Amino acid sequence: MRVHIASDHAGFELKGIVGGHLRGRGVEVLDHGADAYDGEDDYPPFCLACGEAVVADPGSLGVVIGGSGNGEQIAANKVRGVRAALVWNEDTARLAREHNDANVASIGARMHAVEEAVRLIDVFVGTAFSGEERHIRRIALLSAYEARG
Question: Which family does the entry's similarity section mention (predicted)?
Fold first, then answer.
């Protein structure tokens, strides 16, 4: 499995921890920045790069990390083909994958203890899409809208 990961300054430390944790589980992690801590950087370029990489790499997942995760989710969702979900507890992490086939998790580094954030990403990465017809139908409706604008 491959996971693309990105963060701004607010998520920089957690990105390193999550990336190391996933690598330790045998996951290939591709880092899309930030490459160094810069308290003045902006999240959109990193999240957009992560989202583009996920779309270009079928079967992969993405994780974007910021202070709250809200802006990062919005940015990632601007990439056509990304279904980014803000994960804030185990249920939202699981249901994002199970019901929505989300391919990017967004998480707020300032919202969770490190152990909890890592657990949420584990749940997201470890959950498969249900494949149920009703979920497929709903995703198709969103994809059709996305394609026509």
Answer: Belongs to the LacAB/RpiB family.
Describe the strand order of the beta sheet including 61-66 as a list of residue ranges.
28-31, 2-7, 61-66, 104-108, 84-86
> Under a CB-based contact definition with an 8 Å cutoff, are residues 134 and 78 in contact?
no
Distance between CA atoms of residues 76 and 106, nearest Å: 9
Phi-psi region of 101 (alpha: psi -120 to 50; beta: other; left: phi over 0): left
CA–CA gap between residue 101 and residue 139 (Å, rounded)? 8
21 is catalytic: no
Q: Reply yes or no on whether 28 is catalytic.
A: no
Q: DSSP 3-state assignment of 74?
A: helix
- Give 55-64 pLDDT, tens digit per residue: 999 999 999 9
Contact yes or no for 55/79 (Cβ under 8 A)? yes
pLDDT tens string 78-105? 999 999 999 999 999 999 999 999 999 9
Angle, CA 129 vertex, CA 126 and CA 131 arms, to 5°: 155
Model confidence pTM above 0.90: yes
Catalytic residue among 32, 52, 72, 112: 72
Q: Which of 21, 99, 116, 135 is catalytic?
A: 99
